[in-house]
Amino acid sequence: MKFIALISWTDQGVKAAKESPQRLDKARDMAHGLGIKIEQAFLTLGDMDMVCIVDAPSDEAYAKFQLKLAAGGSVRTRSIKAFAEADYRGIMAAL
Question: Fewer CB within a 10 Å sphere, N or C end of the chain?
Fold first, then answer.
């Protein structure tokens, strides 16, 4: 299952922005422990500070990951569940 994580730094996260790469490494390790892979991470300009493409085995595993990530206090996330093109085409064909 693919998810797009829209990430905003909290005040705490902004104050320690220089440590963001290390926090990403820790998030990758935490994700790995839950069977999740952060496939891509982007620093972004605009409303969000970062965007990540994440692969998770289930909605439940992804929810657990996002809650653990938020508990660290440096980020807040919004998530979008994404369907691969083949799945999208199958959904549309079934209409």
Answer: C
| pLDDT value for 15 | 96
- Domain containing 45 — which CATH number? 3.30.70.920
CA distance 38 to 18: 20
Helix H or strand E encompassing 71? helix 59-71
On whether the pTM is more than 0.85, the answer is yes
| Residue pair 71/26 in contact by the 8 Å Cβ criterion | no
Range of the domain at 28: 2-93
Q: How many domains does the chain have?
A: 1
